[in-house]
Amino acid sequence: MACWWLAVCLLSGIAAGEQLVGGLQVDSPDDPQVTQAARIAVNLYNRQSDDMYMYSTFTLLFPLRQVVAGVIYYLDVETVDKTEVINVALIRHQCGCKNTNECFTFLGILSPQTFVCHFELLEVPWENSNQLLKVQCRPSVEVVMVKHVWS
């Protein structure tokens, strides 16, 4: 009887459109908390990797959030190689390129090297801590954007 009552309670919450505690929640890429989490993840990765090709600007592709003992952000982020961004800025300043594509042509590159990185960031606000749980980066050949209308 207790199992039946639990099942009814759980199903009524799902039917009402409410999320289960600990479940994944789809976020808007424009949510300030999500963009801040992405910024933190990219900065932590840059510090931990000690790589000369540090990543800078980014585009959030499909962010998810899970509330546990803190918040885990699942972030797929398209990042740009910072060295090429700096080169474009220098060339644009020195040579007076009118637009970014003109600078890429001048540099002999079609576009800056982009990477798609999957970050799993644990944020525990009451401890003022952030920890990267998982990172996977790969060069992006083509990123397929899924159009989603956020309510």
UniProtKB/TrEMBL annotation:
* Primary localization: secreted
List the SMART domains hit by this protein, alphabetically. Answer: CY
Pfam families xref list = Cystatin (PF00031)
| Location of this chain's protein in the cell | Secreted
Residues of the Cystatin domain: 19-138
Family of the protein in this entry? Belongs to the cystatin family.
Listed name of the protein: Cystatin domain-containing protein
